[in-house]
Design goal:
There is one protein chain. The chain is 60% helix and 0% strand. With 95 residues, it is mainly α. The chain has a domain of 58 residues. α2 runs antiparallel to α3. The longest helix is centred in the C-terminal third of the chain and has 25 residues. The radius of gyration is 21 Å and the shape is elongated.
Length: 95
């Protein structure tokens, strides 16, 4: 803390705080984050769907999980692209 008195009316502007923190932030490994989020989301979905499988027949469960497995990567990719700083990521870096 500084020795100067802090005036509680001086509220930092959010963009100033973000810009100050961005200088110290480590670069994000987009591919690693994408893969980690996808893997954890699929594990959670598998667990939840297996619990729900008691109430639905096996064929519907498999179709539902296959569809989730097919569509979830695009969903995660879209959300990751919407995050600040992800605009410059190359398309061919991800499958």
């Amino acid at each position: 803390m500084s020795s100067e008195s802090h005036d509680p009316r001086e509220i930092p502007i959010l963009t100033e705080t973000i810009e100050a923190g961005a200088e110290d932030a480590a670069p994000c490994d987009f591919d690693a984050a994408h893969a980690a989020i996808l893997a954890e989301a699929l594990k959670l979905a598998d667990s939840l769907l297996r619990q729900a499988a008691r109430d639905i027949d096996t064929k519907r469960f498999e179709n539902l999980f296959d569809r989730l497995r097919a569509e979830l990567p695009a969903l995660v990719d879209r959300v990751m692209r919407e995050q600040p700083g992800a605009a410059g990521e190359p398309d061919e870096a991800r499958d």
